Amino acid sequence: MEIITDQKPKMKVRDNRSSCPVSTCLEIIGDNWSLVLIRDLFLERTTFTEFMNSPERISSNILTDRINKLRKYNLIEYRVHPNNRKIKQYYLTQAGIDLYPIIYDLIVWSIDHLDMKFDPTAVDWYQKNERLDRNQSTRNDIASYKDFKAQLLSL
What we know:
Elements: H1 21-29, H2 34-42, H3 48-52, H4 60-72, E1 76-80, E2 88-92, H5 94-97, H6 100-113, H7 120-129, H8 134-154
């Protein structure tokens, strides 16, 4: 059965293990690093070096692999930095931006259910958003990212 939702271009998926949408989605973004990289992009990190300096300390070979994987599935793209042609500045495509509600839900679930000390950025975000409903919060954060992306691409 084919489900038609809207007219957005669809990613071509080959060699997936299953016809289940959850399983296939997890094949694309369900590894240890892809959603962390997407989170970093929402935190306005744009360069390989900025990703390497994230608290999780991803190794360079895995980071390169995940960047290539996310580009293959059209979740991220890049532009060459206008002042230094050696630097690529990565940004989310609309398909990548559409993953934000998943990031949102993972943050809320973790803070609500895990007994641990969280990064101050996550705690600040949670406190800023706890009085908003999910839809309003995700709309605000997506709009903020889109403004950042527009500014990045206009430089």
